[in-house]
Fold these 4 entries.
Entry 1:
Amino acid sequence: MNRKVNPSSLALMMGALALIFVFWGANAVAAGPGTVTLTVTAVGKKDTSPSVVTQDDVQLFLKKERTQIADWKHGGKLYLAVLIDDSLDTGIANQWGDLKAFFAGQPDTTYISVAYARNGTAMLVQDFTNDHELVAKALRLPLGSGGAFTSPYLALLDLMKRWPSSADRRSILLFSSGIDYFRGDFWTKPPDLDSTISRAQKQNINVWTIYAPDAGANSRMKRARSPIISAPPRPSTSSLILMNSPRTSATNTC
C-alpha cells in the first residue's frame, strides 16, 4: 500500500476493490406492512451529472412481474460511516492524505463518522458530523496486531446494530483485508458474512469496501490469499457517484 493514490482514484476504488458485498440497488428495508424501501442511485455518463429521474421514468419488477411504486422521494443527506480494521498494516496510513481529501470534497449534506474495528466491535472515535476537517483529525495509525485480530464482520454487525433507523441515505466504507481471525480461516467463507449481508440489506445500508493488507500479510503472502478477497477489477465510478449524488427513495407495494 505504498503506491501513491490520488483522491479521485481513492473514490473510484470504492466498490471496485470489494470484499464480496456490494449492495448496488438491491438494498431493501421494510417500511411498513406490504412495503419495501429501496435506495436508487442515478448514474451519469462519463462522470457527468445524471438527469432528473421521476417516478414515471422507473419500472419496478418483482419476480418478473411489474410492481407498483407507491412513493418516490429525493434524499439529500448522506450518513457515511468509515470503519477501519485495526489489524491493518500501518502502511495504510500513507493513504490517509487521500482519504482526507475525499472527506474535504464532500458537500455539507454528507455527515461522516470514523470508527476502528477491534475485538469484534466498532470503536467510535468521531461521531457523525459535516465538519469534514474535524473528521479528518480522527484518522490514526491502525494497531496492526494484538486484540485487533478478530472479525471485521462482527464489527460491521456491531456498527449496524447500533445505527438508529433513518430515512436518509446510509453507507459504510470499510478498510479491511476481509480475513476473519475470530471464527474463520483462510480457506472458507467467514461464518458471519451472510448475516452481515442480510442485516445491511434489511437496514438499507450500502457497504463499500477497500482492500488493504493486515499486519500479518507479509508472512502469509507466499502461502495463500484469503478466498473472500476478490481480484480487483478495473475501477468503476459507482461508489464515487453514490457518495456525491442525490438519492431517490422508492417505496413499492408488494
Entry 2:
Amino acid sequence: MLKLKAITKFSILLSSVILASVVVTSPLLAQVKPSPSNNQQKQLQGKQLDELLEQAKKDLDLDEYEQALSIYEYAASLDKENSKIFSGIGYVQALLGNYSEAADAFKKAIALEPDNSEFYYALGYILGNLGDNQQAASAYEQAISLAPENVGNHLGLGVVLLRDEQYDRAIDTYYRIISLDSSNQKAKNIFYTALLKQERYSEAIAFLQEEIVKDPQNAELQLKLAKAFLNQNNIEAGLQALQSAAKLDPNNEVIYFKIAKILQLQGDLEGALDFYQRAVKVKPNFIEAQANIGSILLAQENYLQAIITYRRLTKIIPENPTFHHNLGLALQERGRNEDALLAFKKARVLYKEQGQIAKEEELTLLIEEL
C-alpha cells in the first residue's frame, strides 16, 4: 500500500500558507495606550498577531510543537476569522499525532476559506490517518475540484480509495494521474496494488513486464513481479523474478529472505540456508532469518552450529521460549544434558508465563526424560 509521508508532505504543501508570520513569547508585550481608536486597536492587534505567528514559526523550526500550538491557540483567541491561524493549529496538531483535533481545526479553516485546496488536502490526509477513508476521499475530491492539476490531490485520493477497497475508483484515479504525469511511480503503485487486490494477476504481470522493459535495472519492479507470480501460484516464475531482483540489488536482505523461504518450502534446505545467511550478512540483526537458519541446522543435524545460532538468539531475545527450547534440543543431541536441562527449564518457565500450556507440558516431559 502506498503511504504519503506525513510531516514532509505537510511542510511542503502548507508552510507557505500556515507559517506565514511570527509570535511574541507573551501577550503582555503588546501594550496599548489608553482609549485608542478602533483603527489603532486593529493596527496594534495586527502587529501582535504578526509577532505571535513569527514566534510560532520559530518554535516549529526548533520542534517545539507544544509551544507553537499554545501560541496559535492564543492567536485564534485574538482573531477568530483568520483561516491561516486555524490551519496552523491543525498543522501542529497533526505533527503531534492529534488527528481528531487537527481535523476540527482544518474544518474551521475551511469554513473561513472554502476555496483553499490545500486545506482540503490536509483534511483528507488527517481523516485518512483517522481511518475515515470515505470522508478523506470526499476531502480530496474537494481539493481536486479546486486544483485539478495538482497531482498530489489525486494521489491522496488514490491512497484512501485503496484503503477503502474501492479498487475500480483507484484505477480510474491512476489514469487521471498518468494524464497529468505519465511517469508518476506512486500512481503506478496504486494501479498495481489495485490489480493485485482484485486478483487480476495476469494484468498486473503484463503491466509490470512493460515497466521492466522501460526500466530494466529497477529491482523493486522485479520484486513486485515476483509477488504477482507467487499470488498466481507460479512459484518458478516468482523465484526467477526474485533472483533477478537480487542481482540488481545485492544488498537487499528482504529479497534473499524471500528466496530462502521459497527454497525452504520446496525442501531445498542447502539453498535456503545459503540465502538466509546472505540475508543475515546484509542485516546481522535479522532475527527471523537467524531463527530459520537455526531450524534448518537442526533439521540437518548440524547441532554444533545450531547451538551457536540459538545461543546468539537467546541473548538477543531472552524471553523467546522457542529459542531456549531448540537450544536445549541441540545441546541434548550433543550429549550436553546438563546444559540442555537448563535450557529446557528456561523454556518451560517462559511457555508458562506466556500461557502456552501444551508447550509447557511438552517441556516437562523432555525434562523428565533427561
Entry 3:
Amino acid sequence: MVCWLFQSIIFYILFCYILTKKDMVDKLLKSVYYLWINYPHFMLDVFWREFLTYLSAEFAKKQPVIFLFLKQLKPTTLNNDRLVLSCTNQGLKTFFDKKIRLLEEELSRYAKKSMAIELTVLSKAKKTDEPPLLSFQPSTDDLLTRSGFLNKYSFENFAVSSSNQIAFAAAQAVVNAPGSAYNPLFVYGGVGVGKTHLAQAVGRKIFELDQNKRVFFCPGDLFTNELIESIREKSTARFRKKYRYLNLLVVDDIQFIAGKQTVQEEFFHTFNSIASAGGQIILTSDRHPSAIKNLEDRLRSRFSGGLIIDIQPPDFELRTAILLIKAREKNIPIDIEAAKLIAEKITDTRSLEGTLLTIYANNLGVSETVSVEAVSRFFRKSEQKISRRFYPEDIIKSVALFYNLKPSKLRGETKESEVALPRQVAMYVLRKHLNLKLSQIAHFLNRKDHTTVIHGVDKVNRLLTQDPVFKQRFNQLVESLGFST
C-alpha cells in the first residue's frame, strides 16, 4: 500500500516534469520528502491513538487513574515488539514503572502479539518547572482539615439519645438554614458530652453541601493566641480578614476569652461582622453564658440572642451506642453484652475508647472478639489493684490535685467557693469510700466539729442529683482514684 502510494507520486512527478511544470515539481518533491521523513511518526501517532481508544472501552472504567495518566505519555518509537513511551517527568515514570506489566498485557492483547514497553523521561534543553505527577485538587477532607475540622467528627458517627437529641435537631436545623435558623447556636455541657463533635459535624456538613462557603473551627485559646501574635507582629489586618469574612465560625470553649478585654473587644466585632453578613456562628462552652465570669455584658447578650442548648451527660444507652461506634471505627469485634458491661462500669465517655482498646489489647491471642468474659476479667483485675489500702492523706492530696489546689488549702480556713467545694468533695469521698467517722474526717481536714462534715456531705449529695456537670466531674475524680462510681 505504502510502496504503491510512493510509486504513484513519483510517476506523477515525472509526468509534470515532462510537461516542464518545474514549480509544481518542486512543491511535490518537498511534499514527498516531508511525507517520507514523517511517515513513521504519523503511523506511530495513529497506532497510539487507536490503542487509547481500545483502552477507553473497558480498561478506563476499571483503572481510571492509570488511563488518565496514560494519556499524558508520548509514543517515541515503535518496532516489531517494543513500544517506547516518553514521560514528561520522573514522577510519571516512577508511577508507571510499577504498572508496566499491566500495560504490556493490554498492549499485547491489542496488537495480538507479545509486546514490550520501555519508559523514558523527556530531556529538556532548558530547565523549566515540571508539571506535577497529579494535577492535584485538594479533597473535601483536605480543605476541611486546613480549616480546623477533624475527619473523625461527623453526623454519621454521632450517637443520639434523649440526653442530646434536642441539640442534634438544632444542629440539623442550622445545616439546613445557616445564618438564619439559630444564630448563634450556643451549646454547653460537661467534658466529653459531644459538644465539639456536634459543632464540627455542623461545619463539615455545611461545607460538603457548598464548598464555596468559608468555614473555620478554632478553640477559644487559639483565637486569643492568634490575636496576640497579630498585635505583636502588627498584622491585625490579616487577622481580621481571616475571621471577619467567614460564612461559618465555630469557636470551641468560648469561655476562655472571658476576662481578656482586648480579645473580647475583637471577638465582639468579629461576631457582628459575620452575623450582619448572614454568616453562622456556633459556640461551645462548659457553662451557660450567664455563668461565665468576667464576660462582657454585650457579649453575654450576643451569646444569648440565639439558641442555647444544654447537652446532658450520656445515659447508659448512649454510652453503649458510643462504644459500639468506636469499636466499629477501630474494627474491633465486640459482643453487645460486653459493650453494655463496659458502659455500665465507665461513665466518662472519653474513657470508653481507652478502656475498649485496653481490653482488646489484653485479649489479643486469646480471642478475636471482645467478650463478656474478657470484660469481666479486666474489671476484676482492676478492682484487685484498687483494693490496696487508701489513706486519708492520699484522698486529700488527690482531691486537691484534681482541683489544682494545695492540700493545705483544704485544711485551711478559706471559705471561698473555689476551695470550699473541693473540701466538701474530700469529705464526701472520705465518708463514702473510706467509711471514716465524721469526727475523723473533721480531724483530717482541720474542722472544728463533725457538723461541718455533715453539711459538706449533704451538699455534695444534692449536687450529684441536681447538677449533671458536677456529677460528671465528680465521677471522673472517683474513677481516677480507682473507686467505682
Entry 4:
Amino acid sequence: MRLKKLAIAMVLALTISGCGVSPASPELPPEAQENTEQTADAQNEENNPEVPDAGNEGEVTEPAAQEPAAQEPAAQEPVEEPLPEPNEPAAFEFITDCGTTTLNGYTVKPIPDNEAFEYIRGMRGGINLGNAFDANNCNWLTDEMEYESAWCGAKTTTEYIDSLCNEGYNLLRVPVSWHNHVDPDYNISEEWLARVTEVVDYALSKDMYVIVNMHHDVDKDFFYPDSAHLDNTLKFTETIWRQLAINFRDRSDRLIFECINEPRLKDTNNEWWFSSENDAVLDSYDALMRANQRFVDTVRDTGGNNADRYLMVCGYCHIPSSTTSENFSLPYDTAENKIIVSVHSYRPYEFAGDVTGTSTFGEVEKRENKQVFSSLYDRYVANGIPVIIGEYGCIDKSNPQDRLAYYEFMGECAALYTIPIIAWDNNVVNTSGGVLAESFGFIDRATGNVVHRDLVDAMTAEYVK
C-alpha cells in the first residue's frame, strides 16, 4: 500500500506543478437526483462559459431621451434599507511554518494565524448524515418519525456514530429538512426536534464537530430566494432558526449552524446555473444575501453560546464560482470572524455524478478540482476567512482505483489549502457492479460496518502533520 501511495503521490506532484485549468464542467449535487425524477437537462450546477445561459434575454436598445412633459410629482415608493456593510477581516499574520511544509513536493499554502483557523484546524475527516433527517415530502408516510429512515433505510444509532469516531471522523454534517415537520406558523414538531437533538447531542458528546442546517426547504411556500417570495423566506428563516438557536443555545462551540442548503431558483432554467449577467439570478442573490443576514441576526439575538457561535453561509446553490464572485458578500456580524463560507463540489460532474459520464480520474480532473480550492483560498482563506466544502464525492462506477485517487486527491488539497471537506454519504452502496446512481455510501448505517475500507482511510488520513 505504501508503494502504491508513493506512486500516486509522484503522479500528483507532477499534476500540481502543471499549468493551465480546464473549463469548469457542469455539476449537479446528489440531492438533485435523490427523487430520481430530475431530468437530464437539469444536471448542471456550475455555469460553463462555453454554454450560453438559458435565462438571458437579448439586449434591448434604449429609446432616445425626450424632454419630460410637465406633470404632478409622482408619489415616492418607500425605499428598502440596504443591507449593512460586511465586517472587514481582522488584521492577522500568517503561520510561517505552514509555508515551508510540503506535501508530495508541493508547498502547503500559508494560513492565517487567527482564532478561526485554529478552530477549523482541529477538523479531520468529515462525513454527511445524508438521506436521513433531510428526507422530505414522503407523502406515503403516516408517522413523521419514519422520515429518518424513509430514504436511507436505517435509523441513526449510537453504534453508527461510534463507528465514525473509531474510523477517525470528527466532523459530522447533519442535514435536516424542516418544512414537513412544522405547523402553518412554522412551529417545529416537538417530537421531530427532540429526535434531531438526540443525535446531535450524542455526536457532540463524542467530541465531534457537528453542523446542523435547513436542507431541502427550498420551496415557494418556505424558503425561496427571490424578491417575489422574500417576505416569506425571511419569515421562515427567522422562525426556524430562532427555535433551533434557542434549543441549542447552551451547546459548545463544536456545534455549527448552517443557514440553508443549495438556495436556488428551483424548477426554473436557472436552477443549477449561476450567471452574474442574468437578472433573475441577480435578484435571487439579493434575496439570499438578505436571508443570510436575517439568519445571522436571529441566531446572535438568542444569546448564550450563540452570541459567538460559528455560522456557515453560502452563495447561490453552494456553487463555488457563485461564492467567489463579486456578487457574494459576507453578512454583517457582531461576533468577530465567526462566519464560515460554505460551498459544495462534485467535479467534474461527468466523473463524480453522471451515470453516463466518465469513470477515470486523471490529470484534467485533478486540475479542475485543484482550481476550486485555489479560488477559494485566494478569495477567502488568504484574507483570514475560513471555508468548508460541505459536500463532495463521486458515485461508484465499478472504478475503485479512480475513486480512491479522487478521495486521496481531495484530502491532499484540503490539507494544502486548509479547507476542511465533508464527504456526502447517503447509505447507498453499489453491490451489483456496473454503475449505480447516487451510490455515495461508505459505512453501513444499520451496522456501523465499513463498506469501502480504502475510501474511508483516504478520507480520514492525516496528509500534513
